[in-house]
Amino acid sequence: MSISIPLVVIIGVLVWAAWRFMGLRTWQVVLCLLLGFLLAATSAAPEISRILTSITGLLTGR
Known about the structure:
The protein has one domain. It is an all-alpha fold and 62 residues long. It has 3 helices and no strands.
């Protein structure tokens, strides 16, 4: 699966808003990033990719 740049930007904006307005601390953002990188290296990565593809397909009507 290829994650498009707009999806990455939307998620980035959501994280920035959580950091700015909800009191998310910098170490929590770093922890979330590390979790994402570690999940990408596990056997769960294809399933996560399939779920994200399904969700984006439902949202875009494809």
